[in-house]
Design goal:
The chain is mainly alpha-helical and about 110 residues long. The chain has helices at about 10-20, 25-35, 45-55, 80-100, 105; strands at about 60-65, 75-80. The protein has one domain (about 10-100): Orthogonal Bundle (Arc Repressor Mutant, subunit A), CATH 1.10.10. It is about 55% helix and about 10% strand.
């Protein structure tokens, strides 16, 4: 369980995929992150991270037939695995614990 750590961008990508559900594919994940974080995401960074998350077992990819508007090209869709959900929850808990009681420190 402790063999992989979760970086900030990996965390954000997993949350975007979780939020999008069955509509989680590269471009939609990038759009979701950009809309919610107001930061630009390069395709290269996103796709490398998606590949790394699959290798860690936190995302599962599958090929799906595209829509007519895309010329029926296949696209790779992603689903957060049970292990990925567990790691997200663990990360959230760890961060909440670290943030606890720091509000006065941030106000200085």
């Amino acid at each position: 369980m402790g063999r992989h750590s979760m970086g900030e961008f990996e965390h954000i990508v997993l949350l975007a995929a979780l939020r999008l559900g069955r509509d989680a594919y590269g471009a939609s994940i990038i759009e979701e992150i950009e809309a919610r974080t107001d930061r630009e995401v390069s395709q290269a960074a996103a796709y490398l991270t998606l590949k790394r998350l699959e290798e860690k077992g936190w995302l599962e990819g599958r090929q799906e037939r595209g829509e007519d508007v895309r010329g029926n090209r296949e696209r790779r869709c992603f689903e957060v695995t049970a292990e990925g959900r567990h790691r997200l929850e663990r990360s959230r808990s760890e961060l909440a614990s670290m943030w606890k009681g720091l509000a006065p420190e941030l106000g200085r």
